Amino acid sequence: MTTLSTLLLSDVLPRILTIALAIGVGVTLANLAVEFGAVEYIAVLSKPLTGPANLPNEVGTAILTTATSTTAGYGMLAEFRESGLLDDRATLVAVTINTFFGFVQHIFTFYIPVLIPILGVQVGVLYVGARAGIALAITLTGILAGALLLTERNVDPTAMESVEGPDDEPRSRREKVRSALQRTWKLLRKIVPRLAIIYAVVVVLIESYDIAEALDFAAPLSGLLELPPEAIPVIAIYAVDTTAGAVAIAPQLGDPFTATQAVVAMLVGGVVSFAFSTFRRSIPFQYSIWGAEFGTKVIIVNTVLKIVFISLTVALLLVV
């Protein structure tokens, strides 16, 4: 058996340094893109979607804003609702359409600079593509719902003449670069230590123990999803923390996980994670934006749609 020090130096350390470098470069480029407004050129595609959904043009501005700031985008929709421009049904449709454009932001700030370097190109692109397809399907569902369920009674264009977006003071190029680097450093300080610990633990456990034998009791569940028993702890970790789950599965890609199995395990972990994320993030965020009553409706709609389309995606991956 390889000694612990040799294992850490020959396998874990090079992997951690490579991932940390890739994350640092990727996140910096992503932060610079956000700071200089590059993401907005993609977000502008949202505006034509409001017409088929029977929503006013102002909602297109909120969707555009969501691609750069989820909080700001939701805040604008909350203002539309409070002003009477949108009723509750129209607001739920707008929130649903928002899904893909909220995901766009994460492509540039998390998936490309963080997750793909951890998982590798093949598995990373397959996973991000699956998540993008899920987000797009939810957005298209929102457009269809608007076309079928919304009428002029759900929208009052006279309620407000306009809603202004975030009033950010102009900043110099130097300030934007400094802000991007500060956010990168803050993220690296948070991710890299956790990355190193989890990756080291996973590699040592794989090298030291027969994980498949130890998790034999979970064979029925993993067998149902055509996954190896090692998927159970990956799903459990992924349910609590996305980055940690990706780090946990990374050393096991190729053996015992195929690319498809790895994506299925992470998607299943995503479904399980809703129980954690609802209490840790969704309730505080949505309640602060909408209040408890309507915030609960938003959480339910978001969660149900995500579970449905993730389940369909998992089924599709298992069949193909």
Automatic annotation (TrEMBL):
Keyword line: Membrane, Transmembrane, Transmembrane helix
Transmembrane intervals: 12-39, 59-78, 90-112, 124-150, 191-211, 262-279, 299-319
Annotated protein name in UniProt: Putative membrane protein
